Each structure stands twice: as C-alpha cells, then as structure tokens.
Amino acid sequence: MVKGIGIDVIEIERIERALRRREGFVRRLFTPWEIAYCSSRPRPGASFAARFAAKEAVRKACTQGGVKGTLKWREIEVKTGEQGPEIFLQGKTAELVFGQGITCFFVSLSHSRDYACAVVVAI
C-alpha cells in the first residue's frame, strides 16, 4: 500500500555553488558512499543534486506516511545498483520510518543541464 509520495526539484547550480563555498556541505548531507560515487561522475554537482532531491523527496513521502520526527540527511542514503537508484535508511531515521509501517521505497532520479529532480513512493 502506498503510504506517501514525495517529489523535489533543485537547480544544479545551487548545489555546485554550495560545493565550492562550503567545505562541510558534502559531509553534512551525504554518506561516504554517496560522496565517492558522485565525486567520480563527469559532473559531480548534478549527481549530488539528484541525491539531495531524492533525500528531500523521501522526507516529504515519509511526512505523508505519518512519520513524526526529524529524518537525518546522512541516515537517508541513495545508492545506485544494477536496477537503478535505491533508498537505504539507517539509525534513528530507519526506526522512525519503519515504525510507521513504511517498508520500502521506489525512487526515480533525473537531471537536465540545469535541474535535478526525484520522485519517491513510500510503500
């Protein structure tokens, strides 16, 4: 059963500016796996932006799904596997989300030259 749907769109340039200006930005929002993956891509800012949008979409989907409490950025991880992007939760965020009956997520990421977006469905 669908518990919530979240969508987010972000300007890639906004993330690229943050990457240039704020030293701790990446470590505050992204896991070591995400940092390694995005940094290896041809345009790291676009990959970071797509993952940021996915994390924000997870937060929105979970709010619709009845989750109360703070979902920590680094406890929401967006990994790319053979089947495409997947959402993994850790720590207190996992406890809050799974405690409300959300068991998995479907996620779609996309980006153009200027924007990155993500759609997340919480099941």
Please outline what is shown here.
The chain is of the alpha+beta class and 123 residues long.
Describe this protein's structure.
The protein has a single domain (4-122), classed as Alpha-Beta Complex (Ribosomal Protein L22, Chain A). It has helices at 12-21, 25-29, 32-39, 44-64, 91-99; strands at residues 4-11, 76-81, 84-89, 105-111, 115-122. It has a three-stranded antiparallel sheet with strand order 1-5-4. The termini are close together. The protein is built from five helices and five strands; from the N terminus they run βααααββαββ. It is an alpha+beta fold. It is globular and about 40 Å long.
SSE blueprint and pairings:
Layout lengths: L3 E8 H10 L3 H5 L2 H8 L4 H21 L11 E6 L2 E6 L1 H9 L5 E7 L3 E8 L1
Antiparallel strand pairs: 1-5, 2-3, 4-5
The average pLDDT is: 95
Instruction: Report how far apart the termini are.
Output: 6 Å
CATH topology: Ribosomal Protein L22, Chain A
The ordered H/E elements are EHHHHEEHEE
Radius of gyration: 14 Å
CATH architecture: Alpha-Beta Complex
What is the CATH class name? Alpha Beta
Count of distinct structural domains: 1
In terms of DSSP E residues, the strand content is 25-35%
Stretches with pLDDT under 50, minimum 5 residues = none
Summarize the biggest pleated sheet. 3 strands, antiparallel
* Number of strand elements: 5
> Strand sequence of the main sheet, in spatial order?
1-5-4
- Assign the structural class, choosing from mainly alpha, mainly beta, alpha/beta, alpha+beta, or little secondary structure: alpha+beta
CATH superfamily: 4'-phosphopantetheinyl transferase domain
How large is the count of helical segments? 5
User: What is the 3D shape?
Assistant: globular
Helix content: 40-55%
